[in-house]
C-alpha cells in the first residue's frame, strides 16, 4: 500500500477528508502483523492530516517544483534576468541555498500553486534547476495581494515605477483602491499619483524603460508632464524602438534627452471669415513667421493692400516707439 505522504501536496489542494490511494491487494499477513499494520496505517493517516493542517496555517516549509508554480494574477516586478540584482541572487542561492521561503496558495488546478511573493526566488530556482522552499497557505485574493505588497514594502526592493505598475495592474483587475493602498502601504492620494503617472506615461513605455531603480516620483512626474498629448506619446514610442534606446545604460535619461531635442511643431493659426470660410493660415516660429494663403481673392486683396499696411505699421511705430 502506498503511503499517504506520497500525495501530500495534491491532498492539501482538495476539500474533504484524506482518502487512501487505490492499490493491489496486499499479501496475506499473519494475525499479529495485521494489527501492527493497521496501527501504522492509522498513524500515517493522522500524520498526513496534521501536516495538511500545519501547511494550511503556514506553519511549515515544503519544497516544491518551481514549474508547478503560477505567478500572481498581478505581477509586481519588471523582469530582467540580466540585471545585477537578479544575477547576485542567483549566485547567493547557488552558494548558500534559499534562506527565505516564498509564500504560495493552492491553485484551482490540482497539484499546482499560485505565488503570493517570491517570484524572483522561483525564477532563480528554475535557472538553477532546483526545488524552491515555500510556505503553503490558503489565501483569498485580497489576502494574497496584501501579503504580496507588504512583503515588498518590508524588503524595500520595488522601485517607484514598479509600485505604480503593480497598482495599475491591480486596479485594472478590479481590486478596490482601499486594498491596493494597504498592499502598497501608501495613502489614497499617493496611490492616485502612482496611477496617474502610469496612465500618462503608459505601461508600454514604462516596460520599455524598465525598473529604473534610481528614478523617483519627481522625475517620473516630469516625464509624464512631457507626454500629455498623443503626438508626444507616439514620438516617445518611436524613440523606444530605436537601437540607441535599447542599448542605452540609462533608458530613462536617454528618452528624456531625446524628447528635449525634438523641436516643438508650431501649430498654424487659421484665418477665417465670420462665416467660417478659411482664407489662410499664419505660422509663427522662433526662426520666422509665414502666411499661407488658401483663398485667391483674399490673396489678391492682401497683396494690393500691402503698401498701405506697411505705411500704417510705420506710422504706428513712430507714434509708439519701443
Commentary on this structure:
Pfam families: ParB_N, RepB. Belongs to the ParB family. This is ParB-like N-terminal domain-containing protein. InterPro entries: Chromosome_partition/occlusion, ParB/RepB/Spo0J, ParB/Sulfiredoxin_sf, ParB_N, Plasmid_partition_RepB, Plasmid_RepB, RepB_N. Helix content is 53%, strand content 12%. Helix 5 (141-155) packs parallel to helix 7 (177-184) and helix 6 (160-172) packs antiparallel against helix 7. The protein has helices at residues 8-11, 31-56, 84-96, 119-128, 141-155, 160-172, 177-184, 188-201, 203-209, 217-226, 230-240, 243-246, 251-261, 296-319, and strands at residues 62-64, 69-70, 102-106, 113-117, 132-136, 269-272, 278-285, 288-293. Strands 1-5-3-4-2 form a five-stranded mixed beta sheet. A three-stranded antiparallel beta sheet has the order 6-7-8. It is α/β, with parallel strands linked by helices. Among the domains are: 4-56; 159-262, Arc Repressor Mutant, subunit A, CATH 1.10.10; 269-310, no CATH class. It is built from 14 helices and eight strands. The relative contact order is 0.07. The model is unreliable at 1-6 and 15-26 (pLDDT under 50).
Brief descriptors of the model:
Arc Repressor Mutant, subunit A; alpha/beta; about 325 residues
Detail the topology: elements first, then pairings.
Layout: H1 8-11, H2 31-56, E1 62-64, E2 69-70, H3 84-96, E3 102-106, E4 113-117, H4 119-128, E5 132-136, H5 141-155, H6 160-172, H7 177-184, H8 188-201, H9 203-209, H10 217-226, H11 230-240, H12 243-246, H13 251-261, E6 269-272, E7 278-285, E8 288-293, H14 296-319
Parallel strand pairs: 2-4, 3-5
Antiparallel strand pairs: 1-5, 3-4, 6-7, 7-8
